[in-house]
Structures are given as structure tokens and as C-alpha cells.
Amino acid sequence: MANEQAKAIFITGGASGIGRAVAQRFAREDWLVGLADVDAKGLKESAALLPEGCASTHVMDVRDPDGWHEELTLFTQRTGRLDVLFNNAGIALGGPFAQTGLDDLERIIAINFTGVVLGARIGHAFLKDTPGSCLLNTASAAALYGTSGGAIYSATKFAVRGLTEALDGEWAADAIKVRSLMPSFIDTPLLDKSVTGSNEQVRDRVKAAGLEFTPVEEVADTAWRAVHDNGLHHVVGKTARRLKFASRWMPGKLRKMARRQL
């Protein structure tokens, strides 16, 4: 069983963006933080922003089950507990689905969904040993309605949403909460990826559409609330809130917009 010491959160995708911001937010509350990513340099930069002795770094690929076992074991040996597992690692991919390479399709599915599945499955035993723990998954506003021009990304985030809902039911008996974040466009390195079949970056498409960038700190604050309240899905940003409303009350309008998007 977990001991009575500082609470602990393990964060994938901790080398930048949302993962880094959430690490800073929880560290301010005196939590111990495990930062995991394939980017060793970025992990060191994230750890340097946290209080001394607060963080440990874990170079791992979320697609590797052995990596999950090893790094969660090392982290919990240090902390004695796992209060939150933040399944956050992900990549962006935009452009016409029919022009997207098969390797790219397989990669985004493996990182955005299989990585989350592995984290949940392997992390369950560690979370169960800490009563009142939480599995927090990064989904997306793209999980509210299928995104034209981002079909495979949207599909992976719908899958994360579905897994979150299913496990929230299954794991209640184990005293494990399961929650998701559904942010809209966040100003992180994910937006610097090129759109398939175009010289544009995802960031350029967002600007051209007149959509806003939500500060990453807002996502971090929402992550803190998600871990501590009873809500299942937590939308973040004006675009996400508008999309949530429209997907429920104006799905026909969204269909028309999607057909004009590309």
C-alpha cells in the first residue's frame, strides 16, 4: 500500500507543452513529479523548471510495454505511491486522410491510442495501490466531433474518450477515478507539424480559420481541477466549449462546416 508522504503524479509527454505545464502546476502543490518522454533533452529542461528534488525523469516510449513497467516501478519505488497517471503523450497529424501515408497512420494510432491503452493497463496495479487515485487522459476537442482535415487524429482522440468513459465505470470499484482533458488549440510544439500534402504548419491552419490559442497554463489548471472534482470530461478553451455545444445542439451545421473545411 502507498505510504503517507507527498502525493505523486507520473506524466507522459513531459518534455514540453501540456505535460511540462501540468508538472509545474502540480509541483506548486508540493507533489512529486515523474516526467516521461522520448526527448531526454526536453525532460532535463522540464525538470530544471521544478523545485529541487521534486522531479525524476524517465526516458521511455509509450509504445513499449517493458518501458512502462520499468519506469512506473522506478518512480513508485521513489515515491511509495501513484496518485495520478497522466496519459498525455501524443502527436498531431493533419491533412487529407486519403493522402496520408500508411506509416504515418500507424504511428499516430500507436502513440495517441495504443500508448494510452498501455499506460492504463500497466498503470492500473500501481493506481489501485493508492486509494483515491486518478487516471487522467489527454483527449482533445477533436473528440467532440470528427475533424475534417484531421481524421486520424480525431479518431484516436475519440478512442481515448471512449476508453476514459469505459474505465470510469470499470475502475470505480477499485477507487480509481478516470478523467479526460479536451483542450482546443493549445500553443505547443504540436502545432509546428506540417499538414500532409501542404507546406503549411498546423499552426497556420488554425490562424487562417480565425481560431484562438488557449494558454497552456489554462490546461494545467483544468488538469488540477479534473483530478479533484467529479466531472468526467473537461473541455478547455473557447473553441472546445463552442464545439461541445454545437455537437449536441447543431450537428447538422457542423457537418456543413466540415464539408467546406478542406
Automatic annotation (TrEMBL):
Pfam families: adh_short. SUPFAM superfamilies: NAD(P)-binding Rossmann-fold domains (SSF51735). It comes from the Bacteria. Residues 7-179 form the Ketoreductase domain. GO terms for molecular function: oxidoreductase activity. Keywords: Oxidoreductase. Belongs to the short-chain dehydrogenases/reductases (SDR) family. This is NAD(P)-dependent dehydrogenase (Short-subunit alcohol dehydrogenase family). It comes from Stakelama sediminis.
